[in-house]
Every structure is written in C-alpha cells, then in structure tokens.
Amino acid sequence: MQTKQELEEWYEQDDPWEYTVTPDDIYRKRFYLTVLEGLGEYYDRALDVGAGEGFITGDLPAEQIHAIEISDNAASRLPKNVERVFVPEGTYDLVLVTGLLYKQYDHERIARLVSDAASKHVCVGGIEDWLLPYPFGRMVETFRFPYREYTSVFNVYEYERYSPWKG
Ligand SMILES: C[S@@+](CC[C@H](N)C(=O)[O-])C[C@H]1O[C@@H](n2cnc3c(N)ncnc32)[C@H](O)[C@@H]1O
C-alpha cells in the first residue's frame, strides 16, 4: 500500500499526474460533470474522497463541498470553495470517489468511509482493470470511455448501505 509519506513526496510538485494539461483528464472531468448535470440535481453537500488538489472537487454542483485527502501537500492546493475535512461531517447527498478504490490504497477503509458518509448518490470512477468491486447500492448509470492507455469507468449508485456493514 502506498504510504502517506510516498504520497507527500509525489505531491511535492504541483499536479503530478498532469491532470490539468492532459486531454484525457480534461475529458474525464467534463464527463463526470456532465453525468452529474444529467442527474438534474444541485446537491446540498458533496464529499470528494481522495480529492488530490481538487481538480474535480471545486466544480462539483453542490452548495457545500468537503474533501478528504491524505496528502497535506495536495490538500494545501484545494480550491477556496472546498473545505478539507479529515472524517465525514455527517452525511452527504453526493459522494465522489474517483481513482481511489484501487489495491495500492487503503480501499477497505475508504469504502467503509464512503458507505458511512453517503445519503443519496455515490459516484465511483477509475481505471476499469484496477477498480475494486465495491457496490454502494443500486447502480443507476454506468459508463465506459477510453482514458490514456486504459478504459475508464464511471458508476452512479443510488446509495444503499454496503452489505458487509449492514446492521
Ligand atoms: C489517483 S488520485 C485521484 C485524484 C482525484 N480523485 C481524481 O480523480 O482526479 C488518488 C488520490 O487519493 C489520495 N489518497 C490515497 N489514499 C488515501 C486515503 N486513505 N485517504 C484519503 N486520500 C487518499 C491520494 O493522495 C491521491 O490524491
């Protein structure tokens, strides 16, 4: 598993994955936001888990936006309209978790946190071959599109508590 220290070092430079200048990431972000717009919601509260520097976070359609990010270097660059939190503060009608439910991260803990924080829609994105199968309720939409040398998926769930933690 990648450690916090490794992630801090990775984020010593700005935008280490070059999201802001890579056409596939600009497309990915636009794709996510278009799907959210299609759901026809303006959310009260959104939580982005593993938000990085907030490449997507700052543009989420929500009144209040919280971000959870393990790297202090990354979090120091979050947009001004995004508040960093260390644990979910109550529940959120939108939870976004993209590029994070992978084996190199603490995915079990993250999935549990997402499950505890969600109240309505959970959006999960990532590289198809890497994404671990955590269902967060009834899947209402699913998309696949080319991304760098991979295929990217984006799933929208209507939240139901993830079964291993029911009860
Ligand atoms: C591949 S990046 C994805 C960034 C962003 N979600 C996106 O889709 O563009 C994964 C991010 O998750 C963060 N991360 C990794 N493990 C984490 C954890 N346990 N809690 C919070 N953030 C974590 C990393 O520091 C990194 O910023």
Run of helices and strands = HHEEHEEHEEE
List the ligand species.
S-adenosylmethionine
Gross CATH architecture: 3-Layer(aba) Sandwich
Q: Ends: how far apart?
A: 29 Å
Tally of DSSP helical segments: 4
Q: Low-confidence parts lasting 5 or more residues at pLDDT below 50?
A: none
CATH homologous superfamily? Vaccinia Virus protein VP39
Give the neighbour order of strands across the main sheet: 3-2-1-4-5-7-6
Number of strands: 7
Number of domains: 1
Strand content: 25-35%
Helical content (DSSP H or I, runs of 4+)? 10-25%
Shape descriptor: globular
Q: CATH fold name, please? A: Rossmann fold
Main sheet, how many strands, which sense, barrel?
Answer: 7 strands, mixed
Q: Evaluate the radius of gyration.
A: 15 Å
Structural class: alpha/beta
Mean pLDDT: 95
Write up this protein.
The chain is of the alpha/beta class and 167 residues long. The protein has one domain (4-165): Rossmann fold (3-Layer(aba) Sandwich), CATH 3.40.50. The protein has four helices and seven strands; from the N terminus they run H-H-E-E-H-E-E-H-E-E-E. The protein has helices at 4-10, 23-38, 72-75, 107-117, and strands at residues 43-49, 62-68, 82-84, 92-98, 118-127, 137-147, 150-159. It has a seven-stranded mixed β-sheet. The longest helix has 16 residues, at 23-38. The chain starts with a helix and ends in an 8-residue tail after the last strand. The relative contact order is 0.16. The protein binds S-adenosylmethionine.
